Amino acid sequence: MNGWCRKKPLEWQEYVNKEVKVTAAEQEYEGWVFTVDPVSANIVLVNLKDGGKASVMAVMGHAVEAVEVLREGDSSTADQLTSLFMPAGAQGYSREELENRKSCLRDWLEKNRIPFTEQGAQQETLCVAGVLTVNPPYGPEDCSSSNEIILSRVQHLIQSNPGCQQDQ
Amino acid sequence: MKTPVCVLRLPRGPDGTSRGFDPSSARYQALCPSTISASGPVDCVDLRSEQRARSFLRERYLRSLIAMVKRDVKFTMYEKVKVDAVFAGSDIDILNFQVEDLETPLGVQKEALIRCPDVICYSFEIDSNL
Hints:
The structure holds two protein chains of two kinds. By secondary structure, chain A is of the alpha+beta class.
């Protein structure tokens, strides 16, 4: 294992949102660090191009010979990088909106006589019938369960929710 | 798109049974430690911030993998090998990538497994929905 792989996650995190030059197998790769995978030490570099495209290059951790920091990024670079990979529409829910969506789902589950509990540090996760969890923002795609049948039933149920006070 | 060739299999490894993917082989153990050790004896607060960093970094990496699915990816490997394929998935330790339509000098492999220790870097393009 080379020196890069032996670094700790806190050290790797220091490189995020910085423009770096990575030397690997006698080649140099430049780009903005989106992340460093803590399992494989792979460095994911992004270069934004004109025309609404971005080129993503990942250098495998085991191949990294040297990493040189070229530039620090500012908060707008950080936002740009983050928004590249987040699913569209994932951001933008305020705390009240999330609370409302949760209450809306809670009422719908109660109306359908489905047992559930609230879990998590801020009670943000709904645990349905002890086998399925729903995370914010409480849409059908935010359900997880190891039971396919229950997953599909609950997803359909959420989708058929006639709606809350606002949006939807 | 070229017609796929029939399935090619790697020759058997030195132990006579595996095809190079055996996680218990000496080669694998040497190249890919699959357990992530935390830093040495540290106090609770440091461990918590290390864990927070770990999950922050890992989540971002997993999202980058998700963004890669069904896209054309170029793999640069050792021995001056460069191949194109459509990314399908990865295993949890990032030791193998599953790809489809792997273009090789021998033809197009419909489904293939690429060993990550053989890869130097991979690249793809996405739309920056800005």
